[in-house]
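Handout, section B. The chain below has 501 residues.
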Amino acid sequence: MKVKNLLTYSAVLLMSMASCTKTLELDPVSQISNQSFWKSEADVTGALNGMYVRLRGQAIGNLFAWGELRAETMDRSLAGAAGLQVFYFNELDRANVGTAAGNGMVNSTWQGMYTVIHDANLLLKFAPGITYSSDAVKNQVLAEAYTMRAYAYFVLTKTWGALPIVTDPTEGYKPEVIMKERSSKEEVMKLIKSDMEAALSLYPNSNFKTGRNMWSKPATYALKAEVNLWTGKTMGGGANDFQAALTSIAEIEKSDVALLDNYASIFDYENKGNKEVLMAVRFQDLEAGDNIFANIYMSGAYMTSAADQASKDKLGVLGGLPIMAMSQLARNQFTLDDQRRDATFIEVNIPKAGGGTEVFASAVSKFSGTVIGGNRRFIDDIILYRYADVLLMKAEAQNALNQDPTEAINKVRKRAYGANYSNHIYVHSSATLANDAILKERLLELAVEGKRWWDLIRFDKAFDLVPSLQAKKGKDYLKLFPIAETTLSLEPKIQQNEGYL
């Protein structure tokens, strides 16, 4: 998005925040009304861009925290913030969930994502009444709004389960209208699937927008595939849902997507919007501040002069603050001949007293940003869906249907191991072993991409693989997040999730 679009959105921001519930963190009625704003295609474009700005506000930290921090992949680093320990140790409760923060980038309440939903609702209400240069432009706008609403509700229901369903923009402060009880996760999922179908019927083509940082038909199919894997595995959807996932993936494979030969290049700041990306959240210099990955690198203050030169060379220009790091448990699962290893993390080695070296600390090298004016900036795009993720979803759906997932798994492995691929070829033997192989491959391929916690829930492995949950097996309420005390105090009709009372 261009800076001028952000300025355009300054007007719609005032208007779109008009008089919503306190829970949704929207301001009182603005001087700019909906009636005076929605007059032209340019107004709609500004509002559409603003919706993506709101999503970026959630991608700065929340999407990563909700999708990764409770898994076995993350741990404290040298500057580790004590507040984040409640994620790693799975000790979240109603008091700490809204206050546990990673350098101000994490706020585990649902308010922010509801502002994204509000923006989508505004577009869906007012955009149809505008005159456009073509029907294709109009349909593209509406399709993106439907997809965004579906995505936001999907993230929220995976995190908190039952939710208040809001499908109209809030345009006046009437407590009897805006204070809603939670609807069941089944009702939420019904809305999500309906919105995806509406979007898919409206997209004028299967093309990606330049940059691949706005929703498209292929990206919506990726969302649909994940949604159906989720409902198929966690909500009893079974074979019909798994087949729907495969059908969606077949549509994706008709589009302009491919695995890049060089794994690290997927995340290169200079290679944004490459052919492996289906949907990403855009971060640009002068347009956005650093994202959560500023908390996972290595600043000079925490670097040791004893580090070996190889470690220093890999790190390059230092930056950020090492609050979080990949856990040793996760790092140890990468083999040395896996190109994803160095492209995901860097271990800083120091000499041992008796000879050899030992690990002093580690830094995540994936999403390590770019150097501007001698300073490291963490403004890589946050990728929501990419083709390797889709291939592993394909393997997962095939395996769930008792089909052979070999081809999809091996496409991912062939890229990962290159010349050593022959030592890592997957050979199918049973659905159980395939499930384990796919879940591990997702860890190796998608580490620190905000996917792991959801994968563990979908595969029903959280209590087996997360050390802090192994002694809590049977406490299934821990699969959901608690609702923050701040939310409960503002919304009297909202009831706490079971187990956190």
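Note. The beta strands are 74-76, 277-281, 324-326, 345-351, 357-364, 370-372, 375-377, 382-386. Compare this with the example in section A.
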